Amino acid sequence: MSIDRKQAQNIASVLSEGLPYIQRFYGKTIVIKYGGAAMSKISLKEGFARDIALMKLVGMNPVIVHGGGPQIGSELKSAGIKTNFISGFRVTDRKTMKIVRRVLGQEINKEIVGLIKGFGAEAFAMTRYNKSIIRSSKLRLNEGKDLGLVGKVESIQNKEIKKKIDKGVIPVISPLGFNRKGECLNINADLVAGKIASSLKSEKLILLTDVEGIQEKKGKLISRINKKEAKSLLAQTVVEGGMKPKLESCMEAISTGVRSCHIIDGRLPHAVLLEVLTDEGIGTMITSG
Question: Is the confidence at residue 238, as pLDDT, over 80?
Answer without folding.
Answer: no
